[in-house]
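**User:**
Everyone, produce one record:

**Assistant:**
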Amino acid sequence: MSKVSTVKERGIYLLPSLFTTGGLFAGFYALIAAVQGRFELAAWALIAAAIFDMLDGRVARLLHAESDFGAQYDSLCDMLSFGIAPAVLIYLWALVPLHKLGWLAAFLIAACAALRLARFNVQMDTQSKRYFNGLPTPAAAMLIATAVLFHEDNAMAPIPWLWFGISVALAWLMVSRVPFFAGKDVDLKKRHPAVILLGMLVVIVFIMANPHMNLFVLALAYCIHGPLLGLREWKRSKQSGSDKEKNKSQTD
């Protein structure tokens, strides 16, 4: 093997890695801001980290620049941005009054984020492009970040016990088998109906009308749609099983 080809194999794709590094920087900044008590700034930093995380994968797929290094680097950065940073943020923002129970709930978010990312890595080759298996870590972080924005904008104090329950629910959803829409099967290089662009514009206008509230509404709707989707699939499978049993009994 030539020296040139060896160097090429050992290199990394710069553009996707730059987006991933941008997400890492935003996640680390969110962690620092949360420790300093600047919760709204920390929330916006987490949203920026989620945008970088969305872009790095899309850019890698568009440029055919996917690699094992990029996948592992992305997961390590996600652990900070969507595991540690949101766990610290929700603890300092809402769970401090609960003392030990508060930091245990925050730790549960961090631990389940690590488990979620590890499971995603080992199932990467068999993972459906249409649905995620469990709540994605960026979505859990977005619910926390947008909730902070909503409360800060309306001068509302968080209810510790409510957010304790939400923290446990988010942790469980991340490691569950509940399906969540992924949208990775959408090919950006192909032609699509113009109505899709119109829908995207409507979403942008909806967000810009009241970012502090509407971002929270969208994040909450995404976190809720997974259990509803899972319930629908469970009912379908149960109905299918009962139909098979009915047909079998009729045949016998």
